[in-house]
Amino acid sequence: MTIKQGNVYIADIPISRPHQLSMHTITKQTIVLVKLTEEDGLSGWGEVATIGGASYEEMTPEAIKVTIDHYLMPMILGKKAADYACIMNDIQKHVKGNRFAKAAVESALIDLFAKQKGLPAYELLGGKIHDSLPVAWTLASGDTKKDIEEAQEALQQRKHRIFKLKIGKGDPNENVRHVLEIKKALGDEVRVTVDVNQSWDEQTANQCIPKLQAGGIVMVEQPLPEWNEEGMRRLTASSALSVMADEGARSIHDVFRIAKHHVGDSLSLKIPKHGGPHETKKAAAIAESAGMPLYGGTMIESTLGTAIAAHVYATIPDMIFGTELFGPLLYQDMVSTNALIYENYELIIPERPGFGITIDEDKVLYYARDHETRQKG
Ligand code: MUC
Ligand code: MG
């Protein structure tokens, strides 16, 4: 049974409140969906998300679609999903970089093959170790009081007890005040981390990190620009809290360099950033070999992209910092007919074949950008 058709959709889906990062405030989240259909009509789906067009990541949603349509799809059509490892190996050899595009197609191939076999995708990724994963909520409303209310509600509902605060926008002293006020309001039982998304310089980081640490913050994610590896190395050496590499740690070669030179002492994994499920597992293995604690990161994907990450992370032994697979909880709508289950502060790993998500194609077409058959007015 060979793959006879490939479709790529860019969809903009409304979220429930503005999500403020240092470089961009999200009001609609953009995802790229890949559908691969074989001769018998069975299809596999993949998803990646980016944040803020070109402001977070070099690959824009538009570039991801063009790369898949023009360069990756010709290497997939006519092939069998069972040969997904050979297909991806070929793609690695002939297509440089473009990791988000590779992640989307590898996920769709695995979804298709796992559905053919009637197996959950984690069976093709090394086997499941965890039935559920702890999920952090990201506080990023841009308002201290609202963030505290949001966190208290999540605690009451037993949804989250780890909170990541997006900072780095505006006055750094104000950032520190905001974080410490939230941490104080939430108390000792609650773990609070921060993500600066590359927005500080080394001097600012040197001033702010000790104050955050003294206030009980346990980790700071990518405080410096990704190019400033020397600065990240010095901060890692001088900080008592964990300095996590995120944007700087994309390819497995980045992860190796960062681990070797201590450009951070923990690592945020993300399926699109590393270039797909298998590259993510390699990145995790490099970090594990260097004794670097792991975090199951997100690009704020919808149900499918989050399920893909959940299947991969479920096969990784230790995720000391938990995960931030909260994406679907921020969306106002779904492009799937089934939802992910969150209970007792954790996300349950979906058990149905493939990544366990059934795509609602009418919804995809409704939200798809510039699609011929788009049904919006
Ligand atoms: C990032 O840098 O980690 C994850 C959560 C969130 O709010 O933004 C992302 C990206
Ligand atoms: Mg980050």
Could you characterize what this model shows?
With 377 residues, the protein is of the alpha/beta class. The protein has 2 domains: 3-120 and 358-367, 2-Layer Sandwich (Enolase-like, domain 1); 124-348, TIM Barrel (Alpha-Beta Barrel). Helix content is 38%, strand content 20%. The chain has 13 helices and 13 strands. Helix 8 (252-261) links the parallel strand 9 and strand 10 (266-269). Helix 4 packs parallel to helix 5. The protein starts with a strand and ends in a 10-residue tail after the last helix. Residues 372-377 have low confidence and may be disordered. The structure holds [(2S)-5-oxo-2,5-dihydrofuran-2-yl]acetic acid (MUC) and magnesium ion (MG). [(2S)-5-oxo-2,5-dihydrofuran-2-yl]acetic acid binds next to loops. [(2S)-5-oxo-2,5-dihydrofuran-2-yl]acetic acid binds at residues 21, 138, 140, 166, 195, 197, 246, 268, 297-298, 300, 324.
How is this fold's topology laid out?
Blueprint: E1 3-20, E2 25-38, E3 43-50, H1 61-72, H2 84-94, H3 99-117, E4 132-134, E5 137-139, H4 144-156, E6 162-166, H5 172-186, E7 191-195, H6 202-214, E8 219-221, H7 229-238, E9 242-245, H8 252-261, E10 266-269, H9 271-274, H10 277-289, E11 294-296, H11 303-313, H12 327-330, E12 342-343, E13 346-348, H13 361-367
Parallel strand pairs: 5-6, 6-7, 7-8, 8-9, 9-10, 10-11
Antiparallel strand pairs: 1-2, 2-3, 4-13, 12-13
Helix pairs in contact: 1-3, 2-3, 4-5, 5-6, 8-10, 10-11
Bound molecules: [(2S)-5-oxo-2,5-dihydrofuran-2-yl]acetic acid and magnesium ion.
